[in-house]
Design a protein that fits this description.
Elements: H1 10-23, E1 28-34, H2 35-43, H3 46-49, E2 54-61, H4 63-66, H5 69-79, E3 84-88, H6 102-107, E4 111-114, H7 118-127, E5 132-139, H8 144-157, E6 162-169, H9 171-179, E7 188-192, H10 193-199, H11 205-211, E8 215-218, H12 222-238, E9 243-245, H13 257-266, E10 267-274, E11 278-287, H14 296-299, H15 315-319, H16 343-346, H17 351-364
Parallel strand pairs: 1-2, 1-7, 3-4, 3-5, 5-6, 7-8, 8-9
Antiparallel strand pairs: 6-11, 10-11
Helix pairs in contact: 1-12, 2-17, 7-8
Length: 365
């Protein structure tokens, strides 16, 4: 299939791998930001084809994984209220809160529905005027425009029974948090191509300069990732701390300016808690005051939230590239996709889920 098979060409992959082995003279730790990249790397075994002195660690680029425990608990409370239809992407239903998940709330009688688009939730609100319909708006910069499209549509339709529970997070502040940590191991970044397709990469050069780390924008196919790794290692070896674009067929430096204008219209910056990591200043978006009527966090009184995280889950350290999933004592035993302790095992983009799917036999041998 064109545009897929051509980026999985084994001969080209071998050439890139050979070039990486030739270039890599020193030990380097590179973090891929996106969970989709993590799964592609493990699915195709790219990490095992790299030189032994190159280590890939896995960043907090999974929106399901980093949605704060407090917001999950708020979702459980809102979804359980009478006269509410709570809508969400499927992955979120299995993310554990302090006491259960959305599946458990649905089993107790709540009306919780899986949707494939935020606009589906608006349609549900149209068809159920006597119900309050809430959409769980999670994601990085990539999902902000479609999530906001639901607000814009509800506004055009004059709906007063639709709102969104916002958990929008941003990549650049997370990179600052990781690189500024005393425990940081990351020396280079592979930036997420889909995020940059919306936001461009104009925010990244100051990060590369401040922390002396090269950043390479890349995609999700094997050749995309290998070329991104090659470019990043080349910069590391040459002592260059620039931003390069290995995904130019999709990403431009300025990104999608129309989508950025939409974001600026409806959202404003806010501090955001990241699950397992903590508070990262200015790392999220929230609805501007003039759109408070669409903000489920304001429309529903959830009271004082007291969160309780699993005491043995090390998802936070995994999301910061400090540890790997198989270093968790619960991995593959107490924590599995069927019975997850943390969000990184639940999500289709979670690092623990990827290791369980692609590396369990290797890890446990």
């Amino acid at each position: 299939m064109r545009y897929i098979d051509e980026f999985r060409d084994p001969d080209l992959a071998k050439r890139l791998i050979k070039e990486i082995h030739k270039v890599a003279k020193h030990e380097w730790v590179i973090m891929e930001i996106c969970g989709g990249q993590t799964h592609a790397i493990l699915r195709y075994g790219l990490d095992e084809l790299l030189p032994p002195n190159i280590e890939l660690v896995h960043g907090p680029g999974c929106p399901v994984c980093v949605t704060s425990l407090e917001l999950i608990d708020k979702a459980l409370i809102i979804a359980g209220q009478p006269n509410v239809i709570f809508t969400s992407y499927g992955d979120m239903l299995r993310v554990p809160g302090s006491n259960g998940d959305l599946f458990k709330v649905r089993a107790a009688g709540a009306d919780i529905r899986v949707v494939y688009s935020p606009l589906d939730a608006v349609t549900i609100a149209q068809k159920n005027p006597s119900k309050q319909v809430v959409f769980f708006a999670i994601g990085f910069e990539t999902t902000a425009p479609p999530n906001l499209a639901s607000v814009a549509q509800a506004e055009r339709l004059g709906l007063d029974n639709f709102s969104i529970l916002v958990s929008q997070v941003r990549v650049p502040p997370a990179m600052h948090a990781i690189l500024g940590s005393p425990h940081n191991r990351v020396q280079g970044f592979l930036a997420a191509g889909h995020v940059c397709s919306v936001m461009g990469y104009w925010e990244y050069p100051p990060i590369a300069e401040q922390y002396h780390v090269p950043i390479t924008v890349t995609g999700f196919e094997p050749l995309d990732l290998l070329e991104g790794i090659r470019q990043n290692i080349t910069m590391l070896e040459q002592g260059q701390f620039d931003v390069t674009n290995a995904y130019s067929r999709v990403v431009t430096e300025q990104g999608n300016t129309a989508a950025q204008r939409m974001i600026d219209t409806y959202f404003e910056s806010c501090d955001r808690n990241w699950r397992g990591i903590g508070l990262i200043p200015a790392s999220g978006w929230k609805l501007r005051d003039e759109y408070n009527r669409f903000d489920a966090d304001i429309q529903f009184n959830t009271g004082d939230i007291q969160t309780k995280e699993s005491s043995i889950c090390i998802a936070g350290q995994i999301l910061q590239g400090i540890k790997k999933p198989f270093e968790c004592p619960a991995f593959g035993t107490l924590c599995t996709p069927e019975n997850p302790l943390g969000a990184t095992m639940v999500s289709a983009e979670g690092a623990c889920s990827a290791y369980f799917r692609y590396k369990s036999s290797h890890v446990n041998s």
